[in-house]
Structure formats: C-alpha cells, structure tokens
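Homework-ish question, so no full write-ups if that breaks the rules, but can someone show me the predicted structure for this set?
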Amino acid sequence: QVQLVESGGGVVQPGTSLRLSCVASGFTFTNFGFHWVRQAPGKGLEWLAVAWSAANDKYYAESVKGRFTVSRDNFRNTLYLQMNSLRVEDTAVYYCARDRGDEEFDPWGQGTLVTVSS
Amino acid sequence: QAGLTQPPSVSKGLRQTATLTCTGNSNNVGYEGAVWLQQHQGHPPKCLFYRKNNRLSGISERFSAARSGNTASLTITGLQPEDEADYYCSAWDSSLSAWVFGGGTKLTV
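A: Not a homework solution, just the prediction itself:
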C-alpha cells in the first residue's frame, strides 16, 4: 500500500546539522512531488519545502531558505531534508507528504521528532 | 511568511452543522483554492479535500468544501464525536512561490 516513512529525527544541540529521510513505497516515486511540513509542540502546521521530479524544481519557505535543503533520490525512492545551523525553534515533528499536482498533501507519513536543545 | 486566517476554535453540538472558514488573498486561496486537512490529536494530518474541492475517497459526504473569492470554507453536517479535531487549510501562494497554511481551527463537538 501507499506509504511514507520518515526517519532521522533525534536530540541535537543548537548549531548542528541533521538529515531527515522519507522513504516512499507502494507507488511510482517519480510521478510525484513531495513536501516537508513541520509542527512544533502544541502548534500548527508549517510548510517548509517541496521537491518535484525535475532536479532543480524545488521551493522553500522563506523561514528556512538557505538553512534547509530538500533533495530526492529517485532510485532509492527517498526524499531528504538537510537541516543546518539548527535552532531551538526548529524543534518539531517533521512530516513528509505526497503531491501529484492536482492531488495535494496525500498521504502523510507518521512524522519524525527533532528536538534541538543544549 | 504571510499565512491564511482561520478562527482558532469552533464549538458545536452533536448533529449540528459547523462551517469553518479560511481567508487568504487573490495570490493564494483566490488563485487556485485551498486544501483542507484534518488532524486528530496525536496523529498526522489527513487530507480531506484537494484544491479543486474534490473530496478524497473514503471521506464522509457530511463533509463539503467551497470557495467564494479569497475565502474557502469547510462545512460538516450532522456533527459526530469523531469529527472533533484540528482542521487546517493550505494554499499555493503564487506571489511567494510557496505553500502557506492557516493557523488551524480546533473543532469541539
């Protein structure tokens, strides 16, 4: 069945880096774009980035532009989020979600928790 | 980054009707409409409607979506206890080249 599984979260110190992964299965990976969305504890959803199949077809939220980089490995059916210079306020559950262009944000993974703390 | 405006909370009784709103501008909601998501406590979000107001397969017909100008709305009829959740809208903003979310509405039944 269609599934997205995030991993790579954990507890890190401010200023460090972390790479999240989102492994897709049950469908043709290259036919879809993928979003990263985060949710800080007790807060709402914040869109971070989207990556489409074409290598440079990516978009970012202003809040993470220059610090976060989204990429995808179409052979490994995997989406990545490289997060640099992490801040306490980056603490959140990070989700990936699929997008077909006319069928957006469906489905979502279960999320991976990133805690930035000294 | 400018987001969409949703009322923080709505409270309705069992079997009543709730209409949740999502207000943006001509660059986002007014441009191509909004996606509606439902999130139960402790679970990831689930998409209810795509931007073209298409209800996802498996979503109850008690849920409907509409758009008028720069405001999208989600209407839930015959409210049930399981409808109690947070509801989010999201839209592509053509001026920002980014997706924006509303702050979410907590629906209490």
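Now go work out the reasoning yourself. Hint: The radius of gyration of chain B is 13 Å.
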